[in-house]
Specification:
Layout (H helix, E strand, L loop, with lengths): L9 E5 L7 E7 L2 E7 L5 E5 L13 E2 L3 E3 L6 E3 L15 E7 L2 E5 L1
Antiparallel strand pairs: 1-9, 2-3, 3-4, 4-8, 5-6, 6-7, 8-9
């Protein structure tokens, strides 16, 4: 018997609206989530607000492993949301996928 998950996929936008190398903030069920489209076309998602001083994470520079807050250059790992600098805190990370041209996220 397979376990059934209570998580629901939430469509939040079109892939065509998010270009490779771009990050964008989306309002999803009362929270702000940053979605990043990697240059290889894959997606990553985190909380959109930096825990340090509320910086706009979606505006930060990123690579396959990390996103950097544009205000104070703190880096957060996409793998677990942890900051590479101790004492700053972490951001939530979320499962996100391209489903036939639609961005879908699980909170």
């Amino acid at each position: 018997m397979t376990a059934v998950s209570n998580e629901t996929a939430i469509p939040i936008g079109q892939m065509d609206d998010l270009q490779p190398g771009e990050g964008r903030a989306y309002g999803v069920e009362g929270r702000q989530v940053a979605v990043f489209r990697m240059t290889d076309g894959t997606l990553r998602a985190t909380d959109a607000v930096c825990p340090h001083r509320g910086g706009p994470i979606a505006d930060g520079q990123f690579d396959l492993g990390n996103v950097v807050c544009p205000l104070h250059q703190y880096a957060f790992r996409f793998s677990d949301g942890g900051c590479t600098t101790e004492g700053i805190g972490s951001v939530g990370v979320y499962r996100v996928e391209d489903r036939s041209g639609e961005i879908v996220i699980w909170l």
